[in-house]
Target: Ribulose-phosphate 3-epimerase
Amino acid sequence: MSSPRKCLSGKIGPSILNSDLSNLASECQRMLDSGADYLHLDVMDGHFVPNLTFGHPIVKCLRPKMPNAMFEMHMMVEPAERWIEDMAASGANMYTFHYEATQDVPGCVRKIKEAGMKAGISIKPGTKVEVLDPFIDLVDTVLIMTVEPGFGGQKFMADMMPKIEYLREHFSNLDIGVDGGVSLDTIQMCANAGANMIVSGSALMKSDNPREVMQTLRNTVEDSIQKSQLER
Ligand SMILES: O=C(CO)[C@H](O)[C@H](O)COP(=O)(O)O
Model:
């Protein structure tokens, strides 16, 4: 069991992958105005995943437009360490890297912390969750992928829920994120499993009422946290 670190709360991080990228700043602002707790910014290098998005120059342009927003960088890049300093200098708050993209997880986390960011670690669907055990105390969050990373709008993989259940059972205070196909149809499964940091892309971007969707996602998670605390 991990030592108690904080009270868990439900947090919603819209993924801007399927937004109108020609209006990225206004899409980000629209999500913040709708109640986003943080922004999940997907960085893809065309090597670790078969797609390309954007890098630190875009983050640097976004930062002054939204000085108080929390930027979580989902770094789908290999090697994972490659962009730590640049992202920190551009205004990123959290650097979530992939376990599969580094030979040295503790070294990568150390560099992220030295650069002044929080550290998150993510695993692809094919990676066993137990590989993370030695690193949980080093990182701020774990992000469980419920799609193959690379594209938004894919089908949610419900068979990833045991990974979240495993983490919640063993690390009761850990911030556990879930990413890929999370919507009003799949949030209950994520909440029941124990996820509290909810990344949602298409479901928010395509909604006419992202505020309402965010509120429902958050309430579902908060209800589940409260229920599990009562059961303890
Ligand atoms: O990391 C990602 C894909 O690699 C995205 O964050 C994720 O897919 C979110 O989009 P959606 O909710 O549409 O699945």
Observations:
- The longest strand covers residues 39-44.
- Residues 1-5 have pLDDT under 50 and may be disordered.
- The pocket of ribulose-5-phosphate is lined by residues 15, 17-18, 40, 42, 74, 147, 149-154, 179-182, 199-203 (CB under 6 Å).
- The radius of gyration is 16 Å.
